[in-house]
Amino acid sequence: MTMPRSSPFDAFGNLFRLLCVLLFACLTTNAHADIDITVTGTGTRLFPLIVPVFENEGDLPKPISDIVRADLQRSGRFSLVDLGPLTLPESRMPDLAAMATRGADAVLAASVRPSPNGRFEIRFRLFDTTRRESNPELGGMVLQVSPAQHRLAAHRIADFIYEKLTGIPGYFATRIAYVVKSGSRYELQIADSDGMSAQTALRSPESIISPSWSPDGQHIAYVSFEARKPVIYVHTLATGQRRVLANFKGSNSAPAWAPDGKRLAVVLTKDGLSQIYLINADGSGARRLITSSGIDTEPAWSPEGQWIYFTSDRSGDPQIYRVSATGGAAERVTFEAPYNVTPRPSPDGKKLVFVTRHEGRFRVAAIDLATRQTAILTDSGRDESPSFAPNSNMILYATDIGGRGVLSAVSADGFVKQRLSIQAADVREPAWGPLQQ
Amino acid sequence: MKKLLLPSLLILALAACESDPVVDNTAMTDPGGSTASTGGVATVNVNPSNNATGLPPWALDSAGNSVYFDYDSYVIRSEARSLIDAHAKLLAQQPNRKATIQGTADERGSREYNLALGQKRAEAVRRALRLLGARDAQIEAVSLGEEHPACTEATESCYARNRRGDFVYLGR
Questions:
Q1: What is the predicted ipTM?
Q2: Using CB atoms, which residue from B25, B113, B143 is nearest to A318?
Q3: B119, part of any domain
C-alpha cells in the first residue's frame, strides 16, 4: 500500500496552499523525482493513534500533519485513526473519552501560530486516552521554525511521538544519501528519510560508490571514478565544495568517518593489495592501521570509536573481523557462512549488520555482539550496503527487483519492511545520515 | 510571503495549560539563514570534457589488452603469458611509456569487496610485468571493481568476461 500524502483541508487552507505551491514552484530550480516508499511488512501490534489536522496549519508553506502521519504509518508500528478535517487545538484538552471511543490509545493536539520575522510557532501535546483518570499528558513541545523548516519540524514531531509511544528514539528527522544511475549518468542524491526533497549533490558521467556521512551530517565522503580510478573525495553538502581526501597510487576506497569527525578509515593499495589506513579529515597523515597478506576492506567504526570492523579474506573466504582503532591483532567476528561482508555496527553498539551469502543469495543479517547470535533479516537475494538509522532500529540497504536497483529498509527485528524506489532508475549505495540538528 | 500571511492570521485565545510543554526554541532557530539547517544541497557537475586528467578513453575489453581470470582466482592463466610477455617487452624497451592495469570483478556481492578483488587481479598482472622487466614507475595497478562491466547479463559467460585485467597506455 502506498502512503496517502494529502489530507482533507478547509477551503481557506487550500487557497493559501495553492498560493504557496505556486510561489514554491517559481523558487524551485532543482526538482527531482522523489522516492516512493511502500510498506511491505509491519510490526505484530499496531498502536492506534490520532494525529489530527493542526490548527492553522494552512498558514505553513505546506500542511505538515500529513507528513507526521505518513512518517508514523511508514514505521509499521502505528495505525492512524482518521479524524477528517477536525482540528484539536493545543490550548485545550481534547475529549479523550470520545477519542478512545474512536479506537485511539493516544491523541495529539497541535496548533500553528505566527511568530516574529515570518517564523512560525508549532505547539503540540500528546495524550494517553487510556489514562483519563490520572495524568493523561505524555508531554509536548514548542518549535520555532522558519517556513523552509516546515518538513524538518514535521519529522521532529513524528520523532517525539514515536519515542513517547515506543520507548525508542525516532529516526524521521534524518537524511539519506544514495546513488542513482540513469542511463550512463550517476547522481549522488540526498533526500529526507521519507524519500522527499531529493537533491543532487554530485552529477557525474562515472560511477560513485561508498558514500559515508560525517558525524555532523554536513559532509559526505565517497569514492568517485571520474579520474578513471577510484579516488576518495570529501564533499560539503550545503556549499558543494569538494576536495580530494585520498588519491594515492593505486585504488583509494571505502571511506568511513570516525565518530569524532576528525579522521577517517580508508582503504589504499599504495603498498600492494587493499589495506586499511587512518587518515586525517584534511587528507594528511595517512598511516597503516593493520597489515595482512590478503584483502582488508570495508572498515566501519564502533560508535565510541574503539573498534574498527572490516572485511578480510585472510582466512580464504571473506569474513568479518575487528581490530582496535589503535592497531594490534585482529579478532574474527563471523564464522557461519562462506561469504560475510560489509560490517556496519549499530549506533547503540549492540549489533552488527552485514551481508551474508547462503546458497547463492546475498542477504542482510545481524549479529548480536553480546551473544554472538546471528539472524538473517531479509529474504531477498542481492542485498548490499546495509546501514543503520541513528536509533539502531531500522536498517537501510540496497537490493534488486527485476534487474533494477531499489532501496529497502527492514527493522532490526525483521518485522517491518519498506521498499523505496524511483521510477525508471537504478538506485544503489544507500547510507543513512545522522539526526538533523 | 509575510505580507500575504499577516491579514490571514487568526488571533488565538489560548487557554492556560495544565502543564507547560517543553519549549524547544534553540534547536530549530536559524538566525543566519544558513542552508545547512534547512537541508540545502548545492549541486556539483563533473563534466567529462573538463576532466583535466588528460587520460585516454576507457579501454574496455579491447582485443589483445585483456587478461582473463577464473572465478575467485588471481592466478594468471597459461594462455595469457604471451600477452603479458609482449606488454612487458614493450615497457622494458620504452622506459618513457606508462601503463595502467585496470582490474575488474563480476557484479556478485559487495561493491567494495569486488573493488578489492579487481585490485588483486591488477596487482597479479603488475607483478608479472615487473618480473619481466617493466619498471615500477611505469605501471599503476588500479581497480574498477564491478563499476564498468563489459556485459550485464546474469550468466556465467558474462561474469567471466568481467573478471579481467586490462592494459591502458597513457600518452605516447
A1: 0.89
A2: B113
A3: yes
For residue B109, CA distances in Å to A384, A410, B129 come to 7, 19, 29
A227 and A371 together in one domain: yes
Give one word for A201, left, alpha or beta, with left for phi > 0 and alpha for psi -120 to 50: alpha
Q: Which range is least confidently modeled, A11-20, A88-97, A247-256, B160-169?
A: A11-20
pLDDT category of residue B4 using cuts at 50, 70 and 90? very low
Tally the domains of chain B: 1
* Angstroms from A302 CA to nearest CA on chain B: 19
Instruction: Report pLDDT for B171.
Output: 63
Mutate: best of A149, A190, A210, A229, partner B, most B CBs <10 A: A229
| Phi-psi region at A403: left, alpha or beta (left = phi > 0; alpha = psi -120 to 50) | left
Considering only residues 11 to 30 of chain B, which have any Cβ-Cβ distance to chain A shorter than 8 Å?
A: 12-15, 17-19, 21-25, 27-30
Name the 3-class secondary structure at A147: helix
Q: Give the whole-angstrom CA distance, residue A43 versus residue A411.
A: 9
pLDDT of residue B38: 54
Residues A203 and A313 in one domain: yes
Whether A125 and A191 map to the same domain: the answer is no
| DSSP 3-state of B83 | helix
**B113 touches A: beta carbon within 8 Å:** yes
CA distance B71 to chain A (A): 13
Contact B19 A137 (CB under 8 A): yes
In this complex, is the C-beta atom of A156 within 8 Å of any C-beta atom belonging to chain B?
A: yes
Based on the fold, state whether residues A280 and A346 are members of the same structural domain: yes
Name every chain B residue with its beta carbon within 8 A of the beta carbon of A228: 53, 55, 58, 100, 142
Nearest beta carbon to residue A297 from set B22, B34, B116: B116
Amino acid at A197: S
DSSP string, A254-295: EEEE-TTSSEEEEEE-TTSS-EEEEEETTS---EE----SS-
Instruction: Spell out which residues of chain B touch residue A144, defining contact as CB-CB under 8 Å.
Output: 24-25, 28-29
Mean pLDDT over residues A61-76, rounded?
Answer: 94
Asked whether residue A20 is assigned to any structural domain, the reply reads no
Q: What is the span of the domain harbouring residue A37?
A: 30-166
- Specify if B43 maps to a domain: no
Full domain range(s) for residue B114: 106-151
Q: Distance from A227 to chain B by nearest Cα, in Å?
A: 6
DSSP type of residue A382: B
Across the interface, of A114, A242, A297, the residue whose CB is closest to B112 is A297
Cβ contact, residue pair B1, A137, below 8 Å: no
* Domain end among A166, A199, A224: A166
Query: For position A355, what pLDDT does the model report?
Result: 98
Residue B26 in this model has a pLDDT that exceeds 70: no
| Least confident stretch, A44-58, B56-70, B76-90 | B56-70
Closest A-chain CA to B13: A91
pTM of the complete model: 0.86
Q: How far apart are CA A426 and CA A181, in angstroms?
A: 5
Contact, A2 vs A51, CB < 8 A? no
